[in-house]
Design brief:
Layout: H1 2-10, H2 16-23, H3 27-35, H4 42-52, H5 63-67, H6 82-86, E1 97-104, E2 112-122, E3 125-131, H7 134-139, H8 146-149, E4 150-158, E5 161-168, E6 174-182, E7 189-196, E8 207-216, H9 219-227, E9 230-232, H10 239-245
Antiparallel strand pairs: 1-2, 1-8, 2-3, 2-9, 3-4, 4-5, 5-6, 6-7, 7-8
Helix pairs in contact: 1-3
């Protein structure tokens, strides 16, 4: 069982030589583990378990059952890829607090959506939470209760900014967001784009430019921003948001 489990875990790595080097195990000895000819000493087993984020049940139980409850993003398959970006979103990179955002409507190119999200941290991860505008939900024939409108997402750090995978409850709809900080007076603006996960429709946008403005932890500012949110024409956008969105420029 251990040899079979180790072969499954090793599939995520292109080279057994490189994997054994990272583990600090002689390649010949590692091949014996893979073939089931021998078992590792307790200290070596502990090193293998720590590396793959599993426990000693790997000796006796199928690895699929051991890993069934683990975090997919920070598990052994993705921890050095997506997981690395999840754990390194610092406060200086993307601070916690309220953000006012604005973007062009996906459904009506003459209208814009202004809203509010809350960015917060729990453990090593950074999350975003907010609510769709009621008018947007109504236009799509969807429910307008708070549960139907709520969305949540996970923030991931990249070389040039941050991204967020965001979804409504039950993964009914989702979007990919990318934001990069720009130079401003208070250094509190991010500009990027949002792409929604829908099929190609001739009369609807799938990718639009987006602006995030950090409001901090001030509840008063957040309430004021929330009251001014929703659907609006271009005249309803704040001047700097309007400038950053470049509504008259084609999006590339």
């Amino acid at each position: 069982m251990f040899g079979e489990n180790l072969r499954i875990l090793a599939q995520a790595y292109p080279s057994v030589s490189e994997l054994s080097r990272q583990l600090g195990i002689n390649r010949t000895q590692f091949n014996r583990y893979l073939s089931g000819e021998s078992f590792p000493r307790p200290d070596v087993l502990a090193r293998i378990c720590a590396f793959f984020d599993v426990d000693a049940r790997v000796l006796l139980e199928p690895v699929a059952s051991i890993m069934s409850g683990t975090d997919a993003i920070n598990g052994p398959i993705l921890k050095d890829f997506i997981g690395a970006g999840v754990k390194t979103v610092t406060e200086s990179t993307f601070p916690s607090g309220f953000y006012r955002f604005s973007r062009r409507s996906f459904l009506d190119s003459n209208r814009f959506v202004v809203g509010l999200v809350w960015v917060f941290r729990e453990g090593d991860a950074t999350y975003v939470r907010g609510y769709e505008a009621r008018a947007a939900m109504e236009a799509q024939g969807l429910g307008q209760g708070s549960s139907a409108r709520e969305f949540r997402g996970l923030i991931i750090r990249h070389e040039d900014g941050v991204s967020a995978m965001i979804s409504r409850k039950g993964a009914m709809t989702a979007s990919f967001n990318f934001l990069s900080r720009i130079t401003s007076f208070e250094n509190n603006y991010w500009v990027g784009y949002v792409a929604r996960t829908v099929r190609d429709l001739p009369d609807a946008e799938r990718v639009v430019r987006m602006v995030y403005e950090h409001l901090g932890q001030d509840i008063g500012r957040a309430k004021a921003a929330s009251k001014s949110g929703g659907y609006c024409g271009i005249e309803g956008l704040l001047p700097f948001h309007q400038r950053l969105l470049q509504p008259d420029a084609p999006f590339r």
